[in-house]
Amino acid sequence: MADIEYVVQMKGITKVYPNGIAANQGVDFDVKKREIHALMGENGAGKSTLMKMLFGLEQPTDGEIFVNGEKVNLSSPTVAISKGIGMVHQHFMLVPSLTVAENMVLGMEPKSKGFIDSKKAVQITEEYAKKYNLYVDPNAKVRDIPVGMKQKVEILKALVRGAKILILDEPTAVLTTQETAELFKELINLKDQGHTVIFISHKLNEIKQITDRLTIMRGGKSMGVYNTADISKQEISKLMVGRDVVLTVEKDKAQPTDVVLKVRDLEYTNEWNKKMLDKLSFDVRKGEILGVAGVEGNGQRELVDMLFNLNVPDSGTATVNGENIIGVSQRKIRDMGVSLIPEDRMTFGIAGAGTIEENLISDRCSKKRYNNGPLFNIKNMHDDSDQLIEDYTVLCKSRKQQVGMLSGGNIQKVVVAREFSSEPGLIIADQPTRGIDVGATEFIRKKLVELSREGAAVLLGSADLNEVMELSDSLIVMVNGKIAAYFDDTSVLDDTIMGEYMLGLKQQSDEEVRRVQHGE
Known about the structure:
Layout: E1 6-16, E2 22-32, E3 36-41, H1 47-54, E4 62-67, E5 70-72, H2 77-82, E6 85-88, H3 100-104, E7 111-112, E8 115-116, H4 118-132, H5 147-160, E9 165-169, H6 177-192, E10 196-200, H7 204-210, E11 213-218, E12 221-227, H8 233-241, E13 259-269, E14 275-285, E15 289-293, H9 300-307, E16 315-320, E17 323-324, H10 330-335, E18 338-341, H11 345-349, H12 356-361, H13 378-391, H14 408-420, E19 426-430, H15 438-453, E20 457-461, H16 465-471, E21 474-479, E22 482-487, H17 495-502, H18 510-517
Parallel strand pairs: 3-10, 3-11, 6-9, 9-10, 15-20, 15-21, 18-19, 19-20
Antiparallel strand pairs: 1-2, 1-4, 4-5, 7-8, 11-12, 13-14, 13-16, 16-17, 21-22
C-alpha cells in the first residue's frame, strides 16, 4: 500500500542484469512532495540504475513503484513523462545546431499549415522561462550559449513536457560557483511552486546547502534516509564509502625545477569560425601541478586535443623537453613520457568491449617485458594486470571482465592505473574525477600529488573549482581561449574570486599574466 505523503515510492527494488550483476538489491526509496531529495553513493552504488528505472529507461527485476499513490509500470520514458517525471542527464541531450526554442519543442513541435510554427515555439519558451524564472534566449543556437544556460534549457524542456518530479543527475558538474548559486535559487523556486527535485550529486557542500533529506546507497543497497540538517559531511562520506575519507587535499609545497611542457602562441579557430585558442602561452615544470580553470567551452578541451594530437592548431608551438609534439603521432607522444587522462573516458580512455587486462596493457604491448620474440609473455601480462587492479582498488570479478561493464568510477581507475603506471614525465589530466565518487576521487587526487612530488609535471583541467584550487600549485584561468589570469599561489584564491575571473567580470592585464608566469 502506498503512502500519499510521498510522490514517489520505490519498494523492494531489485535489478539483476543478464551477466548476474545485481545493481540494486531490495532498495526502498521514498520522496515527499515539495522537497529537494539527494541521492548519494559511490559510482557503482546503484544510484543511476535506480533513477533509470524511475524514468523508464530500465525495468526492475523485482519490486514496486508508486507515483502519487498509484502503482505504475514505467515501461518507457514516454510513460514516465506522462506520469509527470522528467530527467536531466549529466551529459546534456540537446541538439547543438538547433535554437533553444527548437530544442524546447523537439518531438512535440507546434504546427501551422503543416509546417513547424517557429513563432509558437519561441512563445512557448518565453512563457515557461518567465513562469519558472529560468531565463534563456529562445533564438540562440545551443552551440553558442554558455553551459549554465544549457542546464536551464534542459530543465525547461522537462517542465514544458509537464514534469512535476525532476531528476537532476550531477547538475552542477560543469557550473561556476555563481551559476550554481543561481541554479539553486531556481530549484528552490521550483520547490515553492509545488515541484519535487531528486538531486544526484557527489558534492557534499552542495548537498548540505540545497537538500531537505538524503538517501545514501552503497553496494546496491540503501544505507538509510536522513534529514540533511542532522548529518555531517564526514558521516555522509563514511556511509557512502564504508570508511573515513579525507575531504581535503594534503600536499607539501611544490619545488618545481625544469620546464617540461612549453606552449607558445597556440591558435585555433573551430568549424563554426569561433576562436577557441588565442595566442595561448604557458609552461608546466617538473614537480608542479598547473591547473587550468574556466567555464566549459573556453578552449580547455581544444588545448588538450592539440597537446595529444586529437586535433592540430592553426599556429603556435608545443614542446615536451624541447621536442615538438604538435601533429606528432600519439605513439610517439607516449614514447616521450606523456600520459593522458581524457575528459571523455568512454570514447578516448578505454576500449569498452575489451577486457580490463587488455585496457591496462594496451599502451605497453611492444615492451620487451611482454613481447620478447614472436610470442607474448602472457604470465607477465597477467601478473602486472592483477597487481594494477590491486594497487588501484578496481572493483571487478577478474582481469578478464569486460571493462565497459564496470561502474564509471572503476572505469576511471582502469584509465588512471594505465596512465600513472607508465612512469610519465608529463601527465595531462582532463577532468580526472568528473562524475566519480568520493572514495575514487580521494584516491586519484592523492596519486596526482604523489606523482608530481616525485618529479612528474602535471597539467590539470577541472570544472570542479575546489579540486582545481586545492590540487594546483599554480593556476591559469581561461576565458575565450585566452589566459584571463595566472596565479602562482593558489592559497590566496576562493570560489568568489575564481568565479569573477571565469565569468570575465575581472581580468589581469597581459603584463600581469606575463609577470606571474615568469616569477617576476
